[in-house]
Amino acid sequence: MSDGRYQVRASASFFEDLDRQLRPERGPNGEPSTTDFQAFELLDIVERFATGFDDLPPLVPGRSDYRVLVSTAEMAAAIQETA
User: Fold this and answer.
1) Within 10 A of 53 (CB to CB), how many other CB atoms are there?
2) Which ranges of 25-76 does DSSP label H, i.e. alpha helix?
3) What is the pLDDT of residues 12-63, one digit of tens each?
4) Where are the chain's structural domains?
5) Would you say 79 and 69 are in contact if contact means Cβ atoms under 8 Å apart?
6) What does the alpha-carbon distance between residue 70 and residue 78 come to, in Å, rounded to a whole number?
7) Separation between Cα atoms, residue 70 and residue 48, nearest integer Å
């Protein structure tokens, strides 16, 4: 860690999961696409991990190197991410 920030990268499996859950194009009723999520949500999620990692609850008791973020978002009712 440097300057109070962690380096955060989304894994290939994250993007594979995203592709399975969202359409490549915006849906007929305005449902978000994978590009929408990446443009409007992902950067904020990465920023929350980068600057607030130490304040997030551990995913596994006794393992401070894994944290979980459960939050709401502009385009999703709920988001759960782990790092």
Assistant:
1) 18
2) 34-37, 43-52
3) 999 999 999 999 999 888 888 999 999 989 999 999 999 999 999 999 999 9
4) 12-82
5) yes
6) 7
7) 11
